[in-house]
UniProtKB/TrEMBL annotation, chain A:
<dbReference type="InterPro" id="IPR011882">
    <property type="entry name" value="PaaC"/>
</dbReference>
<dbReference type="InterPro" id="IPR012347">
    <property type="entry name" value="Ferritin-like"/>
</dbReference>
<dbReference type="Pfam" id="PF05138">
    <property type="entry name" value="PaaA_PaaC"/>
</dbReference>
<dbReference type="InterPro" id="IPR009078">
    <property type="entry name" value="Ferritin-like_SF"/>
</dbReference>
<dbReference type="GO" id="GO:0005829">
    <property type="term" value="C:cytosol"/>
</dbReference>
<dbReference type="InterPro" id="IPR052703">
    <property type="entry name" value="Aromatic_CoA_ox/epox"/>
</dbReference>
<protein>
    <submittedName>
        <fullName>Phenylacetic acid degradation protein</fullName>
    </submittedName>
</protein>
<dbReference type="InterPro" id="IPR007814">
    <property type="entry name" value="PaaA_PaaC"/>
</dbReference>
<dbReference type="GO" id="GO:0010124">
    <property type="term" value="P:phenylacetate catabolic process"/>
</dbReference>
UniProtKB/TrEMBL annotation, chain B:
<dbReference type="Pfam" id="PF06243">
    <property type="entry name" value="PaaB"/>
</dbReference>
<dbReference type="InterPro" id="IPR038693">
    <property type="entry name" value="PaaB_sf"/>
</dbReference>
<protein>
    <submittedName>
        <fullName>Phenylacetate-CoA oxygenase</fullName>
    </submittedName>
</protein>
<dbReference type="InterPro" id="IPR009359">
    <property type="entry name" value="PaaB"/>
</dbReference>
Length: 249, 97
């Protein structure tokens, strides 16, 4: 059970933290249409997060609620990958981060919907339609910006170059992931690593962007060792529940 | 021309809310091209499950009647009550007339 619990959090925390990052843009998007699109994506992810946390709360032996799981953990207990916690430096970063995650997320959901665990499979089946749209949105934008003006191309390239080092972690498997994959419940992410880089490279090429060649990758988030940004995200995310415990609205 | 370079063109959005109903004008939004207009329309106008189909058309392609011409265009119809089907008794079974 501990492994399943941790496994659910490994999946869900990615969506929670990315939703929080996108949520920061609410009212700050480059224009009204993109603002709404990004917050829609944030809400999709948050909806998925809730389903996962509700499931985790149900199987947890500590009588937890979904809110406890979302709001009352310390930084080291969050299992999201480093990619999703990276800041919204500029629109290129928002879109680049989204593409690098969406391509992974879609392939992951494709596998998860076949899990013999009925709850996980149901969440994936519902979520994959959302994720499919996210991927369409982010790859369209990467192509527009990459193949846009000299400036948009440079900014998009900067973001991709900068975020590239976080992509390998998507395919790093924690103990919980390895165990769940072995039991046939979880997804063996290594099976689509090659396909992932192929698809991302295709989008980048179509966007007239260079596929980064650096082989230096960093990881840690999935085991609770986060970048310096994570504390600030959690401070904002958890503020209400920490200040007014059990508050509801 | 300077202005059109900086701002995305305006698009009119038509959404069919259910199969069998006609597309209805929902509003307008900005987008760089038709594909983006569709995606934006999806996000701006159908996020609460309002639609099953979207049409987009660039606003400049719409020719509108001039409000100054309202007199000659519309007033002649006002006193011709016999053009309205109000002199018939409709059976109760006929709905939505």
């Amino acid at each position: 059970m501990k492994n399943l619990y941790n496994y659910i959090l490994t999946i869900a925390d990615n969506s929670l933290i990315l939703a929080q990052r996108l949520g920061e843009l609410c009212g700050h998007g480059p224009n009204l249409e993109t603002d709404i699109a990004l917050t829609n994506i944030a809400l999709d992810l948050l909806g998925q997060t809730r389903s996962y946390y509700q499931y985790a709360a149900k199987i947890s032996d500590e009588n937890k609620t979904e809110d406890d799981i979302a709001f009352l953990r310390i930084e080291r207990e969050y299992k999201n990958c480093l990619l999703v916690e990276q800041p919204n430096t500029h629109f290129g970063y928002v879109i680049g981060r989204q593409l690098l995650f969406d391509v992974y997320h879609f392939m992951f959901m494709e596998k998860l919907q076949n899990s013999p665990d009925e709850t996980l499979a149901a969440i994936a089946k519902k979520g994959i339609k959302e994720v499919s749209y996210h991927k369409r949105f982010s790859s369209d934008w990467v192509k527009r910006l990459g193949d846009g003006t000299e400036e948009s191309n440079a900014k998009m390239q900067e973001a991709i170059d900068d975020l590239w080092r976080f992509t390998d972690e998507l395919f790093f498997m924690t103990e919980a992931e390895t165990t769940m994959a072995k039991e046939g419940i979880g997804v063996d992410v290594s099976t689509f690593k090659e396909k992932y880089y192929e698809e991302v490279s295709e989008v980048l090429k179509e966007a007239t962007l260079k596929v980064p060649e650096n082989k230096y990758f960093t990881k840690g988030g999935k085991e609770g060792v986060h970048t310096e940004h994570m504390g600030y995200i959690l401070a904002e995310l958890q503020y209400m529940q920490r200040t007014y415990p059990n508050m509801q609205w | 021309m300077e202005n059109t370079k900086k701002n995305w063109p305006l698009w009119e959005i038509f959404v069919r809310s259910k199969n069998g109903l006609e597309h209805r004008h929902f509003g307008s939004l900005h987008a760089a091209d038709a594909e983006m207009a569709l995606e934006n329309a999806r996000d701006v106008y159908t996020r609460r499950n309002e639609g099953v189909s979207i049409w987009v058309v660039e606003s400049k392609h719409i020719t509108a009647s001039n409000p100054a011409d309202n007199g000659e265009l519309f007033e002649p119809a006002q006193d011709k009550v016999y053009r309205h089907p109000t002199f018939y008794d409709l059976p109760d079974e006929v709905k939505h007339m």
